[in-house]
Amino acid sequence: MNQNCGVKNLTIQNSTDTTGGLDITRAYNFKGENILVRSCTSDGINVNLVFNGFFMNIESSYNSGNGWDIDVPARATFLNCSAYKNGSYGFDYLGSVLADTFITCVADGNTTGGFLIATQGGRFIACRAFFNGTHGFNVTGTNVSIMGCLAKENSRGFTISSLAENSIFAF
Q1: Looking at residue 159, what is its pLDDT?
Q2: What's the pTM?
Q3: Torsion angle of C-alpha atoms 12, 58, 108, 41, degrees rounded to 10
């Protein structure tokens, strides 16, 4: 496990790597800031098994797959992160029971949907989803909090599955 590591002020464009443009795996106390990932032939950014991560001002756009593929982070914070015009979901979030927080994140113009939230805990505060192919927010996980978020001009704004037990929604 990589500890106390990070990436700052980076642009990745036209990557053909099948793991995505930026792959962050098995990290503790990771910090990413001011990053642009675009036009990759797979997912833009993969976050997998990252504990105590902090992601700020990171854009993933025009990628063939998901903008963000987030799988099992723990206590991660995503601040002002965005996903524009990706080939699948903007944010595909398969989180953990240790709550992660998304603050003022934006999903705009993604082919499949804005936010897929299939997790056992996560907080979304003032996030926005515009002009996505299907859902702005598709919640299938449990113990999810969505507060002050906005979905506009998507095929469906908020889709909340019957599986979304113990969740809080305050629009």
Answers
A1: 87
A2: 0.94
A3: 20
